Amino acid sequence: MTSILKVINPGLYSCVQDLGRFGQNHLGLTTGGCHDAYAFKIANALVGNPINSPALELTLGGFRAEVLAPITIALTGLNVGFTINNKNQALWQSIQVARGDVIEIATPHIGLRHTLAISGGVKAQSHFTSVSTVMREGLGCKIEANTLIKQQAPRFSKQKRLPANLIPNFCQNTPLNMVLALQHHEFSAADLNRFLSSSYTVTGQSDRMGYRIQGAALESPTGARFSEGINLGAIQVPADGQPIVLLNDRQTIGGYPKLGSVTALDCANLLQKRAGDEVAFNAISIEKAQNLNHLAQVKLQRALDALN
């Protein structure tokens, strides 16, 4: 198997992801998967891959790698300093690189995560139907300096660029849409209003498993309860009253009371937040959440059609 990249500097945290590990919760294995399905699928489409091909997820930039064989690459996410041989490059387009080229991705001024797709896909060992890295479960591994990235299968792609109107806006100040949980009636009306009218600050105890946020404390309902399955975006309220939004690498079951769930679309926005950023929440109906998801699927299909 041909090595195509030698990682010189992996940055804060780089790993391999695909769309996720589904159907394994009964084994205690979480979903994992890419931080932003739209950005991930488009990155793969730009380099001519099937949309679930393994790609690199980069956290807080600082990534540098030497190209060992001719490949096509694409970087998606918020704007960031992105160079090849010290020449500036654009995101959301495919770029052909040659042996000896040096790819560098700077630390972003805003945002946190980017997807780097490589033609042919990244070669990684599959565990339980997926290559997704979940460090807490010992699946996959963190990419280190001198790691050799291998290509899953030889593939070449023509030059492609996503139309500007299909590039996400990544507005940093938009409230996160959430759907109230069945347990929201256990919280007082005053606490619910306080949560929805307050801003919370992302703490340093936030990662792909969940985001701890600090702000107006809520009174967590007391009393015994059964543990139950945890869905993506679940907003748990532990005894200290400070909410936790559970994300891709979340535990599979838990017993804290849940106020609601951030929509999958806005979980991707939340995963771009870093410690110190502020977040707010907007309660919507499940019907509106479904409509927003359908519109997102239409946008994705338009983008994929534009790249075929």
UniProtKB/TrEMBL annotation:
One of its GO terms (molecular function) is hydrolase activity. It comes from the Bacteria. Residues 26-300 form the Carboxyltransferase domain. The keyword Hydrolase applies. The keyword Nucleotide-binding applies. Gene3D superfamilies: Cyclophilin-like. This is Carboxyltransferase domain-containing protein. It comes from Pseudoalteromonas piratica. The lineage of its organism: Bacteria, Pseudomonadati, Pseudomonadota, Gammaproteobacteria, Alteromonadales.
